Amino acid sequence: MFNKIIKKLRMFFMKPKLSYIDKSKHGINKLNISENAIKVCETLHKNGFEAYIVGGAIRDLILGLKPKDFDIATNATPEQIKYIFKRARIIGRRFRLVHVIFHKEIIEISTFRSSPIDIKQDKFGRILTDNYFGSQSEDSTRRDFTINSLYYDAREETVIDYHNGIYDLKKKQINIIGEASIRYKEDPVRILRAIRFASKINGSIGHDTLKYIARQKQLIANIPQSRLFDELIKILTCGNAFKCLMEIKSNKLHIFLLPTLEETLQKTDSINFLKTSLENTDQRVLNGKSVSPSFLLAIILWPQVQEEYEKNYKKNKNVYISMVSASDSVIEDQLKVLAIHKRIISDMKTIWFMQPKFETRKNKASFNLLQNPKFKAAYDFILLRAKSNDFDKSIAQWWTKWLESNEEEKENMLKIINKTKK
Ligand code: ATP
Ligand code: MG
């Protein structure tokens, strides 16, 4: 009884106000929606359930961006969904979701969440388990931002909006749904998501949504490191990565993700390198190409590694030892805040260790480089360095030419290099 009153009060203060937006106003072309997502909705409809495409995909389609993936919200429970789809698996514990697996795509389906009254929270107010289901309107209040709480009905081609999300989207403003202070307590990752989406859509953050970032940022320290790592990768692949990093830094959030960023962003050369490299990443993201986490982290941490390397080299004149100790010390500092998979660390180190070898172009070393599975990444890395004047452009061009040459031409190129060195 008491719970029911609280639930009603919460819904009252959250003010979900239903509006239907038709095609002429939202402008989504159904042909730009994944056929698999439409198929999943249709199958759920046929089985008597509601189903809508929701979240980032709708936000991105309205903005004319290509969605990364398509999520669906339904009133079917995870078990019911699993029963309907042959290739489906239930994932997650805190939030149980269903993945329906297609040839080249996974469609994520979530069941409408209920208001958080039955939810288990820790002493900081962070949501621990959340598997209570509710109505679409309740579900809309559980989403993070108004622009992420839009539901697309594929049958009617209408968008269902409870929180003026379309209005915010046109204004390009990020507004959290409900009380910012409570919503950040429930899940502090929302602080980072606010910054990310604002950069992604080149927009701003609404007054309260921003005000409580400064007040509550310390909550980020309670987020599991693996989740923080995932969020960092999302930041770096949001399509406007450099701007997003600058915002992260100006809101003093880098201490939870990339403690060395402050120092890096004090040097013009490092800023140039990060900007050039991240713009290149944005372009890849825009073209739907993959970007590996190890490459991204190798970029972000490189200015620090390079500085340490140069310091060490001045003292010991040994390239290898200098690079090992520089990369170890930078990674050690980074691991204090973020858990990074061993394989990613090893790939980052390989990219870094190969950098001095590109400069020397010694006969044997050149051939050895090519056999390294990380050669392409390390070569792409020197191209970015060359572009931002951090690496000799003529040497970078030499490598490009060398890669395009046949065996005989390669040998001649190496002969010339080795002659000039003598
Ligand atoms: P993108 O996939 O482009 O990063 P997205 O908005 O789709 O952006 P997802 O993490 O895929 O983000 O989540 C899908 C949707 O689930 C969001 O749009 C939002 O409605 C909801 N959501 C995700 N994370 C949270 C969260 N931490 N708190 C509340 N709602 C969330
Ligand atoms: Mg998504």
UniProtKB/TrEMBL annotation:
CDD domains: NT_ClassII-CCAase. Coiled coil: none annotated. Keywords: ATP-binding, mRNA processing, Nucleotide-binding, Nucleotidyltransferase, RNA-binding, Transcription, Transferase. It is an enzyme of class 2 (transferase). It catalyses: RNA(n) + ATP = RNA(n)-3'-adenine ribonucleotide + diphosphate. Its EC number is 2.7.7.19. Residues 318-420 form the Polymerase A arginine-rich C-terminal domain. GO terms for molecular function: ATP binding; poly(A) RNA polymerase activity; RNA binding. Residues 205-263 form the tRNA nucleotidyltransferase/poly(A) polymerase RNA and SrmB- binding domain. The active site is at D69, D71, D144. Residues 51-174 form the Poly A polymerase head domain. GO terms for biological process: mRNA processing; polyadenylation-dependent RNA catabolic process. It holds the Pfam family PolyA_pol_RNAbd. The keyword Transferase applies. Adds poly(A) tail to the 3' end of many RNAs, which usually targets these RNAs for decay. Plays a significant role in the global control of gene expression, through influencing the rate of transcript degradation, and in the general RNA quality control. NCBIfam families: pcnB. Belongs to the tRNA nucleotidyltransferase/poly(A) polymerase family. This is Poly(A) polymerase I. It comes from Candidatus Kinetoplastidibacterium galati TCC219.
